[in-house]
Amino acid sequence: MALEGRFPVKKSRITPIERSRFFITKGEGDLGETIDFQLICTEAENFRKNKQYAEALPLFKQVWESGWQQGRERTGWRYAFCLRKLGRSAEALEICREVYKLKPEMDQNCSLYAWCIFDTALKIDNSTIKENEQDFFKAANAILKLTPETSTFSPTASTVFKIIDYLIEARVNYPALQILEWLDKLDPEKLSKEYRSGPGKDGKQVEYASDEEKWYSEKAKALDKLEKYQESKLVSLKALETLKIFHYDNEIWFNYRVAVADKHLGLLDEAQALLEKVRQRKKDYFIDLELAEVAYAQSRLNDAIKFACSAALAPGQTDLGFRWKVYFLLAQLFKEKGELALAKEHALLVWKIRTEQEWKVPAEVESLTKDLAVNLSDQRSARKIEKGLQEAWKKARFEDRRKICGQIKTVLNDGKSGFIIGEDGKEYYYHSRELRGDRDLYDYGIEVVFYCEPAIEKGKKDSAIEIHRLDEQD
Q1: Of 184, 180, 213, which Cα lies nearest the Cα of 196?
Q2: Which end of the chain is less enclosed by CB atoms within 10 A, N or C?
Q3: Using CA atoms, how far apart are residues 80 and 146, in angstroms rounded to an integer?
Q4: Buried b (16+ CB within 10 A) or exposed e, 343-370
């Protein structure tokens, strides 16, 4: 683009002072050709404000490369701004460095400078970061030095959450202490409350949590992992009070962490009530494990066994290593109840899991196997022992409940839930996670047999659990 074509070249007899303010002379003497860079900058800025970055870029570039000093740092910032908007962050980074040398206190440039560092050094996949962690953290610290305060225009929050994401993926054990150190660099009250939408892993549009919600979620989890239960509870309660919209089941998770904190703080009744409410919405094994531990602490041995058996039978995670604490608790519970054969089987299962995974066997596991005189030379695998225990778990969990026959009446649009009409004429809600066998074989009209899980909240329907097709029953 020829500037002379867009902006007329004119003869001038202006003074040297005026020329230094507005013009650069091309040619010899005061009568040389002159270019009005002030006019060019005005035109370029109009393009930039209208988001016509491709049109603004060559104009800002011409002024910047000319060496024109009038408002040079602002010209440089605008030039770099357009470069970044056009996906050229590496080039923008170099311009920002030059502007920073001219005016290090210029907030707009510091923010843009930080974003360019983020684009080029942090906005990369974690496997690439792992190849040179030192540069990654160096870049992150440079960003926080440039923009120490969280604001809408700074990448401070994005930087901290990128670091946390990387640490969780790259470290073998959950890095709770490091996560807290980075979270403490942010002020939750200044974080964005806006949530955004975008494509998920399956390509469908999903909503993402706000920075404020992410901060509370990561903070509560890290405190819980460090067994700082009082602090975890306070953060979770603050989140439940402050946040208006929740994502990724965070409302459930905050309530869960309050309940776990109550358990460890000795508030067993409160913990039990809250865990039972959480259990209505989230059927994960670790919730039943918490309920079992609460019941055990309250000397409700049979209830503890039922909850622990429910945890052992819960669908989901198939790696036995994740549930070794469930099996260890069952070994202790059956020992206390006097059912020593079952206690020995569970203690052996825990020992097998730990040794097969080449994990260290905890002292309490060693002690229990010794007390029960467990035969550690048993050649069965952990998986085989686990399968052999499933009938005992079902018997303990459902011994005081009768089986109900019924028929699937409704399958809701999501395909993951519906209603069963029982032989007693009542309607029972069901979730697909409770369907045993091939879930694709369950549909409207199929006859089933199930157990009833009473609803905790008034007005809610009882649930059908451990659902089997009637034609599959022995």
Answers
A1: 213
A2: C
A3: 16
A4: bbbbbbbbbbbbeeeeeeeeeebeebbe
What six digits make up the tokens of 442? 């369950």
Distance CA 196, CA 179 (A): 23
pLDDT, position 429: 92
Query: What does R_g of the chain's alpha carbons equal in angstroms?
Result: 33
- Output the pTM of the full model: 0.80
Distance CA 279, CA 314 (A): 12
Is 4 exposed, middle or buried (CB count within 10 Å of its CB: 0-12, 13-18, 19+)?
Answer: exposed
pLDDT for the residue 320: 95
Give the mean pLDDT of 101-120.
96
The whole-angstrom separation of Cα 448 and Cα 145 is: 63
Tell me the average pLDDT across 415-436: 90
Taking the C-alpha atoms of residue 222 and residue 164, their distance in angstroms, rounded to an integer, is: 11
**pLDDT at residue 169 tops 70:** yes
- The percentage of residues in the chain with a pLDDT greater than 70, rounded to a whole number, is 92
CA atoms within 13 A on the CB side of 163: 30
